[in-house]
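Running log. JK asked me to keep both predictions on one page so they can be read side by side. First protein, sequence followed by its tokens:
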Amino acid sequence: MILTTARVSGHPGVFIAPPPIPTMLRPERLDIVGFVGVAPRGPVDEPVRIGRWSDYESLFGGFEPAPGGPVRLLPYAVATFFRQGGQVAYVVRVAPHGEDAGGSAAATAHFQFDLPTGNFAGLSAADEGTWGGELRLRLLYRVAQHVRGVVESEGALQLPPGTAAPVGSLLRLIRPGSSDVALRWVASLGDRLPRGSTRTVRLDGDPLAAGSIDVDVVTGSLQIDDLARPGASEVLTGLGLRPTHPRWIQAVLSGRSSTSPTPGSPTDRHLVAPIGDWTHLDFTPAPSLMPLVGKRTQDGADRSHLIDAGAFFDPEQVATSWIDEDAGPDDRDPHVGVDRMGRVREIGLLCVPDITWNRYVPTPLPPVRHPRVPLGCRCHACTTADDPEPEFLAAPDKPRDLDARNPVDLADLISRQVRIIDVARARERFVALLDVPNGLSTTQIAQWRSHFDSSYAAAYHPWLALAGGPGGRALPIPPSAFAAGIIAARELERGLPWGPANELARDAVRAEAAVTDAAHDALHELGVNVYRAERDGFRLTAARTLSTDPDYRQLSVRRLMTMLRLTVQRQGADLAFEPNTAELRDRLTRMLTTLLRGLARQGAFAGRSDAESFFLHCGDDVNPPASQALGRLIAEIGVAPAVPLEYILVRIARDPDGSLTVVRDER
């Protein structure tokens, strides 16, 4: 809302201006991708908007594998998306749910400061995971200001101009020429005086003797070092040491971080959070202002081995009671994983790279010697001595995710992918990008494909490998990650109507399955989008959905129709408050016509003129008086989407005289 001042009857007044009426409609962007997967750190089931890889790495961690378990594919998918040219993504980290999964509190590292007053202040890492055990906390007492004050006869303390000592401030008082030190708290302030004047404060405790006195204003400085990320730290300065202070340490930790690369977003969290109620605490230091060192009272834990399908989807009783996408904070349903990401209004694509993740029992292989640890002497004297054992690192365990070659695992995976499509179909705002399970033959892929029929889903094959995986080996990652970046980059560069195909998958070094011409033909007819090996790499050869409806076979058509509906719904919502008159219908007609003509110029429609490309009815023929009396305004829009060119047929005919005629037919 806008506050505007005006003069009424000779005196100024304030009124709330109505929301501005839109004069034109701008196409809603659908290039933002939602990623749901497994990460070693970061908020759980909370969508976080990121604009570059470094944002992801600072909040969710890097490429470290799960302890004794499968490779986390989420970081590789997000990095690949940005490498293909994507610009904005949302990320949701999943965690196990249910009674047998324990709780996030038990998996979060805890700390405490033992206070000189005999109490302690508890803190926890911002989120669960072993990373919290690598935090180091110190609370330093700093002298923010050193001034000379005067104690008046009434016991009040007069401070010079510019002294910042609000209520709740801690003052260290020293008489000139004396070594005695007193710590006192500011209990109240005197009347506000003009700028540049002295300020009088009253202290707690017994009155002080009149006379001059040296005053140190003491504040806290909380330093948090994250040893898991060398060089990463957070320092909070100017902290109040009592609850009455405006920068009380608990209040600051409960707020947002000002050092975040993206202020105002969920990434601006502090590394730690207070536990419990601190209102009965104060951080009174020793007169020497010795710092406090945080003591870790509970290690963090990685619960990746407990993640299963229940971590990715709402419980059934919650999923069947969805509220519309505009539900606010009063919606208390515990949405998780894919269902939580589905409530993000901005995403136009959805990827779940870790959808094959399954529960496992972490059983590390026999340890191997760390390469940097030298071999010790093996003589009898040394082997019998009580020398410390050399340092060992456990070898990484084999993945235990779902194996599509196992019929039971394949059925489980299909049910998860069907559930993803259900979320996309219910929201009608984004397309779910599915990965054809790795290791299937063409016949098996056809059987897998038969379980899906939706224009809100697209499938990609085969899996593509990236260099630099665990152990220096090439790592297969879901092909949807490449597709997400390709689709986003094509929309940003050329507009949404252009089909995202014939694009190179950057950084792909190997395909996990060889696709022959015959297999490619069969998969294309099934609506599976295939990457083919070319001289310069692997290229995405198609952009189809998994719909059997010919009108929505092309991905660009599905996204175009979604964009039109969202644009009208969201940007035309304010028109509901306008009088339903002919003028309003004319204005809406002009707005829609401008939008459709702009799309036509981008090549979105098949016609050669406006009349062939689209029609728009918003007059009295579709808005009769009876309908207007019910408060309705109806606009009928019809478009002829342009279908991407997929085939170039060359016909060769032999004439009776023996000559050859070549005719090219594009369609």
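And the second, directly underneath as requested:
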Amino acid sequence: MERGSSDKKPTNSKDEQLEQFRIDNYGKKLTTNQSVRISNDEDSLKAGIRGPTLMEDFHFREKITHFDHERIPERVVHARGYAAHGVFELYKSMKEYTTASFLQESGTTTPVFVRFSNVVGSAGSKDTARDVRGFATKFYTESGNYDLVGNNIPVFFIQDAIKFPDLIHAVKPEPHNEIPQASSAHDTFWDFVANNQETAHMIMWLMSDRAIPRSWRMMEGFGVHTFRFVNKERKSTFVKFHWKPILGVHSLVWDEAQIIGGKDPDFQRRDLWEAIERGAYPEYELGVQMIDESDEFMFDFDILDATKIWPEEIVPVQIIGKMTLNKNVDNVFAETEQVAFHPGNIIPGIDFTNDPLLQGRLFSYLDTQLIRLGGPNFAEIPINRPLCPFHNNQRNGFSRQRIDIGKVSYHKNSLANNTPSTSSLEEGGFVHYEEKVEGRVIQARSESFNDFFSQARLFWNSMSPPEKKHIIDAFSFEVGNVKSRSVRQQVVDMFVHVDKQMATIIANNTGVNRPNGAQSNVTASSPALSQENTSRYPNTLNVGVLIGNGFNDAEVKNVINLLEENGVFIHYIGEQIGTVTGRIGSKIKIDETFMTTDPVLHDAIYVVGGSAIDQVKFNKNIMYYIGGTYNHYKPIGIATTGEMYFDVPNKNNIPGVIFASYNPNFAMDFLNAITEQRFWNRIV
């Protein structure tokens, strides 16, 4: 089976199941929720035409009551999210390691629902904040729902779940003034970091480009924790899960991300929605890292520590399948907001480890769904309902949808022949892995968890020069926004253990003393951690074409045809909505005006130029777009009719700026520049 191929749209049986719940109101008669037809939806029932409203107006009361209760509490974390349906196809059977039903036979397809999210901000915050991104996948398998609830960063801030409320309280807006929104650049967060130094590794990732992804379609996902595969012989293998995007891992630059947050707060959700609507389905390959149980203690890190990675050069990632997101949701509230993920939703063949962060999540996620979704029946909401039938003796509660037949609601029983009955291991019943556990009852942490800086140093060593600069800039911005000089000094003194030169520059930039202390002596690096080593493709990248009347018809057509053949999304930008006409009469429809879009919203620009009603303003707008694109290191293609806007010497020596007049293979050279995406050696 060919990896990364997407010749056909896989079927999605979960979508078929949801069909019975989809209601199209178009052309229908207005009714109450009890299906009573309504004769007047403009006026409430009154005692006289100018009299008081009557309580007996059942339609008014139903309508207002429903409106008053339309909002459910937003998630404490991961409140801002977006989702899509898809399907997972297995490349390689994993039956040697696990009995998980969807991992048995190559070619098996399993419906999935994926929610991407930001951790810190509220539901109304912007997509492009510097933050961790959630990457949660619900597999609707034939043996029940399996939830892989992860992030776009493979480690976490803390080692034990008891610290999670402290972390979130620290990073959320400060309670005395509820500022800042969706930002970690403030005193309480960095005070927490400096006084909880297990955060060091995660902070390096958070300050890196990984925290401002270009798109959810270009973002890795990680299960974070160590889980177990369990096979039919009850042999356990430790496993970590990875999602690898087919398009590679790409990010915004910080200034660009801030501008996008104002220009289009919905930038990443719009990107996902439009890609799926165009049929450019996002694809991610599923990889696993596996460690035999007998090798648990052979590494210089504890494999159960959620603040540590398993370096891919030491424990390779095996690619075993591919997920394709092929359908947008029909209703964001009913699906995206009501979906309930839980790391405890596992199936036979997958089990937990003693990772203390994971152990706490097994309680927390179920508990939070109860308060958000109104009670214990949230699993009956269509988006949460498994594809396979489910049977148990649970009853009643808010919003019960099942109508259970019969008088028996307990186990064991004789009146219903002891049904629903339990299943043996051979029948597919879930049996917890038998792990030997012994020791004193104690509140403590393993000594093997105490190395906070070695992998933070490994991450730093693995970065390219531009990535290192971005990390220093991010620290300088974040810590520079901290008002307490003491906290700023503590942070610098902490990160000297990662890299002394880095910490010294941050100290200079934030007005504190240079740090004393020695950096970690780790010299190893992991190339897999650097985005410089990722895949690059032009397809689905967005090129803004700046164009007016009088363009060169043949030249523009040749360039656009090549870009579109390679999957590039084209947006024509002009003076006003309408059409522009070429020299020999070709017409192009303008998608956006200079006022409705911005250079930060495009991955590259193609400067065609031309004539306009207000030529001075038209020229000024093009110069603004060139400047913004150039300063964010993005490709610029200059048509023969656009050279007046970029009149500089040595035109063939400007990284990522391609001139049609000086390049006989201009269209291909421009396509290659778009594929490269950023030109960090450009002087800005």
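Observation for JK regarding the second prediction: The longest strand covers residues 80-90.
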